């Protein structure tokens, strides 16, 4: 195919790459000339991404259910979590809550918080494990 001649419709049907002719304006940087990407790779990429999201959602749901059913009652555990979140939001986040309840170093930063249960003779007691850049602490 001569790049100085207009492409024939049969060239497009066969998937032949059409290059811009040299007498047109400079090539557009947003247009890529070449064969199209295979569709099967795109579908597999989408399928893998959806599988990943599905696995994350399932893991999150399982963790929430385990967290709620570990306590003495599901509703009591749910209300306890809601109260903790309300307290954290009211105080400006978990880091503010952490610094208010513990003596901290001036540059100490909270890394993560974890829901946890302490096993007692009367049953599990809900708590929050705070992990800072200095040491883990339990409340």
Share of residues in helices: 40-55%
Q: How many angstroms does the end-to-end distance come to?
A: 75 Å
User: What is the global morphology?
Assistant: elongated
Q: What is the topology, as strand order, of the major beta sheet? A: 1-2-3
- Mean pLDDT, to the nearest integer, reads 74
SS field, number of helical segments: 4
Class from secondary-structure proportions: alpha+beta
Largest sheet data: 3 strands, antiparallel
Which runs of at least 5 residues are low in confidence (pLDDT < 50)?
A: 9-15
User: Secondary-structure element sequence?
Assistant: HHHHEEE
Strand content: 15-25%
- Rg over CA atoms, rounded to whole Å, is 29 Å
- List how many beta strands DSSP finds: 3
Tell me the number of structural domains.
Answer: 1
InterPro entries: GEM-like (IPR037848), PH-like_dom_sf (IPR011993)
Architecture overview:
The protein is an alpha+beta fold and 139 residues long. The chain has one domain. It has helices at 9-14, 39-70, 74-90, 94-101, and strands at residues 110-120, 123-132, 136-138. Strands 1-2-3 form a 3-stranded antiparallel sheet. Strand 1 (110-120) and strand 2 (123-132) form a beta hairpin. Helix 2 (39-70) packs across helix 3. The chain is elongated. It starts with 8 loop residues before the first helix and ends with a strand. The model is unreliable at 9-15 (pLDDT under 50). InterPro entries: GEM-like (IPR037848), PH-like_dom_sf (IPR011993). Residues 1-35 are annotated as: Disordered.
């Amino acid at each position: 195919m001569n790049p100085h001649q207009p492409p024939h419709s049969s060239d497009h049907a066969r998937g032949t790459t059409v290059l811009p002719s040299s007498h047109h304006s400079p090539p557009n940087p947003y247009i890529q000339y070449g064969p199209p990407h295979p569709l099967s790779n795109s579908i597999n990429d989408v399928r893998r991404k959806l599988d990943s999201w599905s696995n994350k959602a399932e893991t999150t749901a399982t963790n929430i259910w385990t967290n709620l059913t570990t306590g003495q009652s599901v509703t009591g555990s749910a209300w306890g979590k809601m109260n903790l979140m309300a307290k954290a939001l009211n105080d400006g986040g978990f880091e503010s809550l952490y610094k208010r309840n513990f003596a901290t170093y001036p540059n100490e930063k909270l890394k993560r918080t974890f829901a946890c249960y302490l096993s007692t003779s009367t049953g599990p007691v809900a708590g929050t494990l705070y992990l800072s850049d200095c040491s883990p602490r339990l409340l």
